Amino acid sequence: MSGVPAGAMKVRGIAKRYRTGQPGDMLPDLRETLMSPFSRRPTQEGRPPFWALRDINFDVQPGEILGILGRNGAGKSTLLKILSRIVHPTAGRIDMAGRLGCLLEVGTGFHRELTGRENVYLNGAILGMSRREIGAKLDAIVDFAGIAAFIDTPVKHYSSGMYLRLGFAVAAHVEPEILIIDEVLTVGDAAFQAKCIRKVEELVKDGRTVLIVSHQLALVQKLCSRAIMIQEGVVVADGRPDAIIGDYLSGLDRHLDVDLRLRTDRRGRGHVRLVGLQISGGDGASVAAGGPALFEFEVSSAAAALECVFTIYDSLGEPVCTFDTTNGGGGDSLKDGPRRSFRCHVPALNLRPGRYSIGMTIMSHDGETEDDLEIACTFDVLSGFIGGREIIADPACGRVEFPHRWSAA
């Protein structure tokens, strides 16, 4: 029906429109479909429709690894759901050939009341495998996931890591001509991440096609043969991964010029939001390798028991370290009442010189995310001294420098 070879994909004119009601409310596709013949009135309270995607066009060749980049809210996940046939597009068409394997989020397609073994058979059947095929691959799937002791346990008792391992194992072992992955290569422990990456590389060597969404640019640079960038629901760049990553980073720098209060690329409940952020070195100077650093965060209103978590990422989006108020230490001085600001003092920031970014999350006392910014700001670490040694910029030497001393016998 598609007219394209196995493992290929042709995307033409894909668009997705949602009817908006209350802020943040999007009607499910089934309801939208059922109601559309009977509703000719304007959207609720005159609100215009929200176009998550507009006129998306690209081709994917057999055996290609395509990276899809874009900020939060750009439309990446909506596109993958359409490509995975979970969501129907408002307009456009997709031609593809071959078995499709999808891993969009932890536990997608699992039935909580069924055991791991039963879910392997269920997922395999959904993906087009016969019971005999699934049975022949069952041992390999369970071994890859590393959950043999729990394979006959209902998955509602699984941790998120166990969900992830089993979900990836099923998706990767159904021998898909096309495998679609959304962020999951960056979840779980380092050993499992490395195993997943090796499996993706094996699939590509066998001529399989892979589509990957990831905020970790180093992963896109390592794995992908091509990348596209989506911005506000439109493909704005298509080419070599290094060139697209450069465009993406340049766009982030321009985006960060917007006042924090006006930023729209954020997630969370929104009762409290980040409105101010400052980073300084000792005595207000610039941040230098090995020197002190002060991270200051201001929120929009005081609220009881707010928590603050931020992660420092390198220039390719790899996490370097995380600071978390919920992981208390003896030197902390957090007051118990309403909190309006946070300060994180780092006596010695042992980062090598370079450009870094901060991802920021504010959480309420009930564990709900109030505000989340994928990249709240960027900052530079200048050359400095760590353990008495001068540290200069050298990307080949990693991101962190430890004080140390040599001896020889």
3D structure, described in words:
The structure is a single chain. The protein is α+β, with helices and mostly antiparallel strands. The chain folds into 2 domains: 9-252, 3-Layer(aba) Sandwich (Rossmann fold); 265-397, abc- transporter (atp binding component) like domain (Coagulation Factor XIII, Chain A, domain 1, Distorted Sandwich). Helix content is 23%, strand content 32%. A 6-stranded mixed beta sheet has the order 5-6-7-3-8-9, with helices on both faces. The longest helix has 16 residues, at 190-205. The chain is globular. The chain starts with 8 loop residues before the first strand and ends in an 18-residue tail after the last strand.
Short summary of the structure?
The chain is of the alpha+beta class and 409 residues long. Helices cover 23% and strands 32% of the residues.
From the structure above, extract its key features.
409 residues, alpha+beta, Rossmann fold, Coagulation Factor XIII, Chain A, domain 1, 2 domains, six-stranded mixed sheet, five-stranded antiparallel sheet, 23% helix, globular
Strand content: 25-35%
Q: State the end-to-end CA separation.
A: 73 Å
> Assembly type of the shown chains?
single chain
Task: Kindly report the spatial arrangement of strands forming the biggest sheet.
Answer: 5-6-7-3-8-9
Radius of gyration: 24 Å
| Number of DSSP E strands | 19
CATH class of the largest domain: Alpha Beta
- Helical region count? 8
CATH architecture heading of the largest domain? 3-Layer(aba) Sandwich
Shape: globular
Can you tell me the CATH topology of the largest domain? Rossmann fold
**How do the helices and strands follow one another from N- to C-terminus?**
EHEEHEEHHHEHEHEEHEEEEEEEEEE
The CATH superfamily of the largest domain is known as P-loop containing nucleotide triphosphate hydrolases
Helix percent reads 10-25%
Return residue spans where pLDDT drops below 50 for at least 5 consecutive residues: 22-35, 38-43
The overall average pLDDT, rounded, is 85
What about the largest sheet? 6 strands, mixed
Kindly give the count of domains.
2
Structural class category: alpha+beta
